[in-house]
Amino acid sequence: MRYALISDIHANLPALQAVLRDIASREGVGATYHLGDLVGYAPWPDEVVEMLIAFAIPGVAGNYDSTVATDYKHCGCQYEDPHQEQLSHVSYAWTRAHVSARTKGFLRGLPFRIDLRANGGHVAGPTVILVHGNQALNTVYVHQDRPDSFLAKMGSALGARAGDVVCFGHTHVPWHRQVEGVHYVNTGSVGRPKDGDWRASYVLLEITGGDVAAEIVRVEYDVEAAAQAILTSDLPDELADYLRQGGAAPSDGARITSGGRTRR
Ligand SMILES: [Fe+2]
Known about the structure:
Layout: E1 2-6, H1 13-24, E2 29-34, H2 45-54, H3 63-69, H4 82-98, H5 101-108, E3 114-117, E4 127-130, H6 148-158, E5 165-168, E6 175-179, E7 182-186, E8 200-208, E9 211-219, H7 223-231, H8 238-245, E10 256-258, E11 261-263
Parallel strand pairs: 1-2, 4-5, 5-7
Antiparallel strand pairs: 1-8, 3-4, 6-7, 8-9, 10-11
The chain binds fe (ii) ion (FE2).
Fe (ii) ion binds next to loops.
């Protein structure tokens, strides 16, 4: 069984379209799942949700999804500095103001966790567990430098045993490592990578009997179309450079500009 796992699309429609095209071109992908954060930071939240509905792609709730859905006071994101925090607040306010009632209802209905059994539930074999952050919250960042003890605790809390696979996103940086026989797979981000590579990231997960193989795939997309759409919207202009660079754009002090206007 081969799964495609896509996470952190963040309202970036051109990136999602390119990734779905890439998945369709691959042999033997039986199912695609998303790992949350469908909206925020780019101007196509409704379009991304409609595309996932049209393609019947199930998935779990990211922090951005559950905070928008419940009108929470902020998006549950972590900020590198005060300016990034300010940008994040503007993006969150924009997203809340622009999502349709249908999108909001869809986000509210997303489950926190999904379990898959590639070999069927009638025989033993690897369980694939999908969450956005960790076992307790979709706001916890599981970075690559987390110690083995942190991952072992996470796997245990999720009920994972040796041979199982725990998949998540949220950090926007892809990685894969095994601890005590459990695979931990971060899919990276489709629509807002943070590892210096602007290309969309997703994972092809192959389960063959008890064997697990995770391939991190990078896909080029029309990043300029996404950047231009941000620049012509009321989202902060800096979010365009962030996409172009695959990570933090240079800050211009305390000012945020959008659509040629400056906010303070
Ligand atoms: Fe995210």
